[in-house]
Amino acid sequence: METQKVTTEFRMSQWTKIIQSRIDSGLSIKDFCQANGISRHAYFYWQKKLRERACTAIEAAEETRSIVPGGWMQLAPKREYAVKETLGIEINGCNITVDAETDLELLKKVCRVLMSL
User: How far apart are CA 36 and CA 22, in angstroms?
Assistant: First the structure.
């Protein structure tokens, strides 16, 4: 069984080189096969085999790369927005909104002025 795999791999590598040299030559398949004594049927047979192998390799790579099962869509994590906590103060009809970053000395002065109104 191992001999058969080695033989197939060898043939695949040989035909890969042949097909690549045909592409590099710029000749049509018919002209290339005639010039190199290759049967067109053999050329197309091995071209098909190589394409099937390439597709199988791509499908296998995509299956291992896919983390999310088919039919599901992976969503980006929801962004968390920082909510700034504020405090509203009303003194004699005037509204003041403060947060944790408000200077306490300034707040004291503003409250004294508003209370004196």
Answer: 10
For the chain, the structural domain boundaries read 2-65, 86-116
* Tens digits of residue pLDDT in 34-93: 999 999 999 999 999 999 888 887 777 666 665 555 666 777 787 777 777 888 888 878
Q: Which residues pair with 96 in a beta bridge?
A: 89
Show the DSSP H helices in 1-117 as ranges: 2-25, 29-36, 40-65, 104-116
Q: Kindly state the tokens that stand for 29.
A: 């398949």
Q: Give the whole-angstrom CA distance, residue 117 versus residue 109.
A: 13
Provide the whole-model pTM: 0.49
- C-beta neighbour count of 22 within 10 angstroms: 20
